């Protein structure tokens, strides 16, 4: 067995470094991922300012960003396996993009339900 114990801090940090490299690559190369990161930062900031529940906003942001990373990974694998246009490659890429779209729409719904009432209160002149 290489790399030591599964509970090794060194092994964990090495794996985390690989994961962080994936995040950096996606942020640099994927415009939608950048937009979603900034939307998540805005949603989380608004959550803090309004004193709204953090968990649902945090989880929906993590879901959208995670699915965008999987979409990026799937696109790379499909491009590697099928550099030429192929109908099944299109299906795979479209389905992965659809997963991100559905999660994003769900995140908007969660944001409206969780952040809507306190935001309306502030807009009507109340304090958060």
TrEMBL record:
The record's free-text note on cofactor binding: Mn(2+), Zn(2+), Cd(2+) and Co(2+) support activity to lesser extents.
Q: Which residues bind a divalent metal cation?
A: 75
Q: Binding residues for ATP, per the UniProt record?
A: 11, 75, 84-86, 93-94
Question: Binding positions for substrate?
Answer: 11, 68
What GO molecular-function term can you cite, just one? Answer: metal ion binding
Q: Where in the cell is it found?
A: Cell membrane
Family stated for the protein in its record: Belongs to the bacterial diacylglycerol kinase family.
Q: Report what the protein is called.
A: Diacylglycerol kinase
| Source organism per UniProt | Deinococcus arboris
